[in-house]
Amino acid sequence: xxxxxxxxxxxxxxxxxxxxxxxxxxxxxxxxxxxxxxxxxxxxxxxxxxxxxxxxxxxxxxxxxxxxxxxxxxxxxxxxxxxxxxxxxxxxxxxxxxxxxxxxxxxxxxxxxxxxxxxxxxxxxxxxxxxxxxxxxxxxxxxxxxxxxxxxxxxxxxxxxxxxxxxxxxxxxxxxxxxxxxxxxxxxxxxxxxxxxxxxxxxxxxxxxxxxxxxxxxxxxxxxxxxxxxxxxxxxxxxxxxxxxxxxxxxxxxxxxxxxxxxxxxxxxxxxxxxxxxxxxxxxxxxxxxxxxxxxxxxxxxxxxxxxxxxxxxxxxxxxxxx
Length: 323
What we know:
Number of helices: 7
Strand content: 15-25%
Number of domains: 1
Distance between the termini: 69 Å
Largest sheet: 7 strands, mixed
CATH architecture: 4-Layer Sandwich
CATH class: Alpha Beta
Number of strands: 13
Structural class: alpha/beta
Strand order of the largest sheet: 4-5-6-7-9-8-10
Helix content: 10-25%
CATH topology: Purple Acid Phosphatase, chain A, domain 2
CATH superfamily: Metallo-dependent phosphatases
C-alpha cells in the first residue's frame, strides 16, 4: 500500500513539474493560411524577386510563369525590383552575352512582365562584368540598372510619396575583397556609397523610405545568416533616418524579421530560383522555403507585402502604416 501511495505521489509531482515548466518550442519555418487578397483600385504595385538567374532551371521558370499570371490577372505591377544574383553562377561577360536571352529575355517574356525592372547587383553578378549589367540599360527598354547604386521617388497619391533606394552591397562586405573571384569589387568606393546613402536618407522628405540590396542585414538562415558589415554600416542609417523597409535576397527563402523595440522591417525574398531550407530565430516573424516572389502594394497610407508561392498561393502577408 505504501509503495502504491509513493508511486501516486511521484506521478503527481512529475505531472505538476511538466505542467508548470516552460517548454521551448523550436520551429524551422512558419506557415499561414490566407484567403483571397483584396484588390485596391488606387494603388502602386510592384514585384520583388531575387536569386533568379538559373537559365530557367531550379524553378526559375516556374516562378516566372506565376509572376506573369499574377501580373496579368491580379496585381498589375508598375515595375519589378530584383535584389541581385541576376546571373548564376558567374554574371555576364558583356551586353551581348547569350545569358541575357536564356536567363532573362526568354524567361520573363510575357506582355504582363514588360515593365521596368530595377535591379541591384549580387555577389554572383560580381563574378562577371558588372559594368555590362549597367550598360544593358542602354540596350533593353525595361532593364533599368543605371548605376551601381541609385534612387528614385514614386507618388502613392496626392499627399504620400515613397523613396526607393538601391544599394550595391557586395563591395560593402569585407570578405569579397579577399581573393581574385570578384574582379570589380576593388574598383568600388565603399565610403562614397555609404556617404551617398546617408545623404539620400537625410534629405528624403517622402513618407516612405524603402531600401533594397542583395545581402541581408539580418537573416535567420543557416546558409548565410546575418551580414556583420551590413549591420555595422547600413543598419544605423536605416534607423537614424526612419527607413521602414530593407528588402534583400542572398538567402534563398522568404523571411520577415524585426528587431525587438525597432521599427525597420527586414524582408528576405530570395526564392526566385533554387529555394533552400529556412530557419527562424528570435527576430523572425515568418520564415518559409517556398519558391516564389513578393508582391508589394501601396494603398492610402499603408503598405502590404505578400510572399507569393510559385503555385499561385500566398504564403504570408502583412500590412503597416508609415505613421
